[in-house]
Predict the structure.
Amino acid sequence: MLKGKRVLITGSSRGIGAATARLARSYGAEVLLHGQTESQELKKLAAELGAPYVCFDVADAAAVQREIAALSPIDVLINNAGISISKPFLELTNQDWASVLNTNVLGTVNVSKAVIPRMLEQKSGSIVHISSIKGFPHTAGRAAFAASKAALITLTASMAKEFAPHIRVNCVAPGFTETETTKKEWTERTYAQIKETPLGRAAQPEEIAEAILFVAGEKAGYMTGETITIDGGYSVRG
Ligand SMILES: NC(=O)c1ccc[n+]([C@@H]2O[C@H](COP(=O)([O-])OP(=O)(O)OC[C@H]3O[C@@H](n4cnc5c(N)ncnc54)[C@H](OP(=O)(O)O)[C@@H]3O)[C@@H](O)[C@H]2O)c1
């Protein structure tokens, strides 16, 4: 379903982005990797997949425009790069808010703005934003991260309407996902929440990757403006 498609996955040096890159490659896609920095993880994955990579800060609009202009047109964009700052509301500084919103929201906007004009010229394209179950009010907590991920859900709907019929824009909202990085940050509370999850475990990044690539590909050709939750039933635990 993605054979021969040029797929740019932001934040694909590790975690969900890296799993999505591996799966897209196995589907025959031409994968373009991305990281903020030219990390060992990014270089290792690029060698493993035989895929090129680009590095830029998604929050730096000028760098995003410059780096993406140098690439061939992209068929599928997965806006996966993101950060989280986990502090009580009164301890979150304006700098914390700026970092989270600039990376998660403006980063998604910046990369989309750089990619969309050539998708419009091609009269086709598919974009997937990565939100989180924290973007919905029923999983309250982590105010800055949650607000940024909620913004992506409405951004998905707005962009889908504006760029139809040529570009589909959808969103995936993962629940707790076990990556090398996130696992280190899990607290007792996280483990308790995972225990409350009806499926009784966290997601593996490969399971989130399957949902992302389904939404990205032609099998979801009639889907746009939608956010899919994939959280082991956490949202419906009652
Ligand atoms: N893991 C979870 O439980 C979970 C749950 C819900 C939603 N999500 C969302 O899923 C996405 C991936 O999560 P993950 O846990 O796999 O992430 P991760 O392992 O922390 O990896 C984050 C990726 O984003 C890149 N990145 C971070 N800030 C960037 C910036 N300013 N500019 C460019 N790239 C930047 C990192 O690049 P470097 O390697 O160069 O730093 C890295 O490739 C995120 O949007 C996250 O919010 C994750």
